[in-house]
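This protein record is not my work; I was only asked to verify it. Take the sequence as given and treat only the tokens as open to question. I have pasted the whole thing underneath without changing anything:
***
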Amino acid sequence: MQQEIREFILNLGVDDVGFSSALDYNSPKSYAITSFLPDAKSIIVLAFRVLSSCESPSWSVALNGYLDLGAFARSAAYRVARFLENKYNARVANMPLSYPFEFHKDRRAIADFSQRHAAVAAGLGAFGRHNLVIHPRFGTRVNFASIITSLDLEPSPKNSEDFCLHCNLCVENCPGRALDEEGKTDIMKCMKNSQPYGLGADIAFWSQLSHSSPQEQQAMFQSEHYARLRQASYLGNQYMCFNCLKSCPVGVAASQTV
């Protein structure tokens, strides 16, 4: 069964796949796995190599690369979930790649489920200094999608190797200084730079608008800033910084030769 599942996944164009016991998932800030699927036994994690377009000097091209990847990852994960249900009568829970997630005052900008921790549990890599997962072949240039299932699958071997070069290029190239403390990403510092047109900017815009004259309001609505706010509102994520990925030398050769 498991080999058939693996072959089905890879035949979809997924670059790698790992399996984890639900008990091995250990993300201290996430909700319990059983809150997503009460009879969860395993997690299937799909790995997708990030294309070179995501490192374009044009932020719109780079962001579009991630939007394309996200669309493909969602489609692949959905097809895998359908396969598990139809073929093995399994129960499944497809986990969000980013949004949507619940908003609570004690969980500021924290996703309900960590794709990174699931990938590590499934033997698909290890954490680097940038707190991203470094894949054995693709390095930092990889994204993940996870499916929780009621099927009892054999876990993949854990990866004990340290792939990080500890060069600190990610720390030095982070404009928000979000990686200064080892083992921690300051989420708010990261989001301020990577998502400058997010919720905080939206609130600030409308607050300023309410205290502006009609002439000032017209100028605000005609500004590039407002256009980007509008675009971000329907894109969901409008990332404008990829320095932690772009500066990481691990996996560069693999991304150029695959």
Summary: The chain has a mean pLDDT of 90.
